[in-house]
Every structure is written in C-alpha cells, then in structure tokens.
Amino acid sequence: MMLRIKRVPTVVSNYQKEDGNEGSRRGGGCGRNCLQNCCLQDACLPLYAFKKVDSIVSKKKGVGVFEYDKGEPPVAFLDSLLLGEWEDRVQRGLFRYDVTACETKVIPGQHGFIAQLNEGRHLKKRPTEFRVDKVLQPFDGNKFNFTKVGQEEVLFQFGASEDGEVQFFPDAPIDPENSPSMVAINVSPIEYGHVLLIPRVLDCLPQRIDRDSFMLAIYMAAEAGNPYFRLGYNSLGAFATINHLHFQAYYLAVPFPIEKAPTKEITTSDGGVKISELVNYPVRGLVFEGGNALLDLSNGVSDACICLQENNIPYNVLIADCGNRIFLLPQCYAEKQALGEVSPELLDTQVNPAVWEISGHMVLKRKKDYEEASEENAWRLLAEVSLSEERFQEVTALIFEAISYRSCVIGTDSENLLEDVNVEHQLVEEVNAINESSHQAMVTGNQDCLVLH
C-alpha cells in the first residue's frame, strides 16, 4: 500500500510575526539570531502553556486501532499550532530537503512495516560527533548543540501553565534565568511535522533522561491528544546524533508495527503501572502502560532509563497512545558493529536503527533497498538490534531491581528522605553492584565500543 506524506490543514491560522518584530529579532548579537546570550536580550518567542493532568483518557478504541467516531481525529490547538508553524518554516526554506517528496509505502506482510525512501536525510543529516561506546558523556559546548540554532527554527516555548489552564502567548520573552523548554523543527525531517522537544534548552543538559524531562515529554503527548503523534528518544550509543537533551516527534497516520505487536504481562507496580514484554517482534523490549496517576507511569519509565544509562546500556524509547503506552528498547547494534558481527549486506544499507526504525518505520537511504523492501528484510535488520534472550532477561532484572529500590526510597517518610541526601548516588551504587561480576572489555572495530559480557 502506497502512502503519501501530506500537508495537514490547520483550524487555527498560523501566527504571523510582524515585519518589525522579525527584523528586531534578527538584529544584533552574533548575527545568527541564536539561542545564546549574545542574541537573547529582549528576544521573544511564542509560548504554549499546557495544563498539567493526573491521567490521560485514551481516544483510541483498542491497541493499535486508530478509529474515531467521525473519521479523522479531532485537530487540537497544539496540533494546529505545531503544524501551522512547521508549514511556515517550510515556506521560509529552513529545511534541508522536501520530505513530502519522499516515497513511502506499507510493506506487505503480517506486521505492516513502513518503508520510506529518504535519500536527502542520508546526504544532508548532521554527522555524529561523539563516541558510541558511552551512553553518558558530558555536554560539550564546542560541538553542535541546540543553543546554536537560529531562533527562527523554534516554533514555540513549551511549559506548564501557572494557573492550571491551557494558555498561548504569541510573543513571550525568553527568560535565561528560568531556562525554557522549546519545540523546534528537525531540519532533516522524516515526516511532515517532525519536531524536537528540547527540555530546559539553556541549561545545556547532555542526552540523558531524568524524571522531569521525561514527564515533560509525556505532557506533550497528552496535550497533543492525537495517537498519530508519537515522541521518540535515542540514547547515545543508540543513534542519538547530538549530545544535547532532546526528544523527537512527528505524525504518522498509520499504526507503528510495534504498537500492534502482542505482549506478555510481567508484573504490575505498586503505582498501578503494568509492565509487559513484547512478543513476536524482532526487537525485545518492555511496554509500560497505565498507572494510578500519570506521574506513576512517567517515574517508572524514567527510573528504568536512568538504570540503563548508569549501566552503559544503549536504549530507545517510544511514547505512544497520547502518552498512555511507552516502549523501552535496550539495543546493541553499535556494539555488534564494533565487534564486526553485522553482515556487510546490512552495513551497506547505512540504516541506523534508532527509535523510528525499531518501531517499524524503516527510513531507507538507497532506492535499491526501497524497491526490494520486504517484511523479511526489515525483520532481519531489526533482529540485529535486539539483545539476546539471556542478556535481555539480565537487563530486565536490573531494571526491576532499580524500580523496586526507588519505590522503597519514595515510600519512606519525609524525615528519613531528607536525612538521605545521597539517595541518587546510593541507587546507582546498588544497581552497579548487581553487575559487579560483569566483565567489561574494550574491543575495536568500526568504532571503539564498551562491551558487557
């Protein structure tokens, strides 16, 4: 089945900047109108203030089924604002290529993998500037980061409303003392509406998930309220290309294959979060859903991510179903590349299996691979990403141990919690103790890679 990446009509018209404002924003500073101190004085950008919620009511009728009473999903204000501003940047010529010209199709077969031919992304995407063997690396301001982008690439600031209601301010000051989170275009897009969510951009956080940043990503998924809109995260070592904290997001009007994959329930946390394991899918992973409150779901996943980070295990995250359902996928493709365990045939495709590919949206860079795309080929590539069954069970046990420890800490009374000022460090030490017997060895290959045996 052929798909067409199409422009989505908006209900609210684009916010159009007045010529005078635009001119003043481009003047002064370093001349690049960037997000650094040189250009931030008196700078203003739109602000979308979202309403914090305790839970999400799904608009879907069933897992992997995208049906609405009146056909297409309703267009919420955030959708309209995001897509309207994104289209404005298209008209300004800020993207490196026209993603709407990319061919896309659903590959025949049981799983419905999606193939896209995107030669422009291969030729013009920013190269990775850091090692692939360490999930946690310090922020380096000398390398590319999001403070260096032009303010014209930012669609709006995104933060919690002070009065508990959704608000929109078309011209809000940027406050360097209270670092704002921002939504910006991805100049090398995969789909129409492809954006980046950059938490506390001026704090220059490295690419590592923390509780607050992950909660922000879930709030964005909930606020969009559209199951076609998903957010993804790639850790270092799992094909993140920029070491500055960010999530990606875009619209795709069909289910991802991973969303349709069957699952086997493992446990339910004290906070009501159901944790399951993917079944009959090429990449082994965990699925988190539900929870007594949105914070329970967010904290459960973020604690699992922190555990993986601290143990140098690369991973990807997909936030789906308006924030109700989250996929956590530890992976080892870069490790296998370093060990020379990936076949030359797969390496020749130059496909980097990050969150979108792992979820089933295969971004192909050669016309030959697109024309020959099959379910068998997609499965074969993704199977190389997955941990072995034995290693996956070890990592799952590690995650559950970390989640359980954190739950015990949070369950203590506040007096004890205040006395324990080193809770975070103790958590890391205890989790690392579980892996004390793991042998770490540096190997060489296409890249140096730290391998856990």
TrEMBL record:
- Keyword Transferase listed: yes
Domain GDPGP1-like N-terminal stretches: 78-250
Recorded hits in InterPro entries, A to Z, give: GDPGP, GDPGP1_C, GDPGP1_N
**One Gene Ontology MF term:** guanyl-nucleotide exchange factor activity
Q: Name one GO cellular component term.
A: cytoplasm
Residues of the signal sequence? none
- One protein family per Pfam: GDPGP1_N
Name the PANTHER family for this protein: GDP-D-GLUCOSE PHOSPHORYLASE 1, GDP-L-GALACTOSE PHOSPHORYLASE 1
Protein family (similarity comment): Belongs to the GDPGP1 family.
Q: What is this protein called?
A: GDP-L-galactose phosphorylase
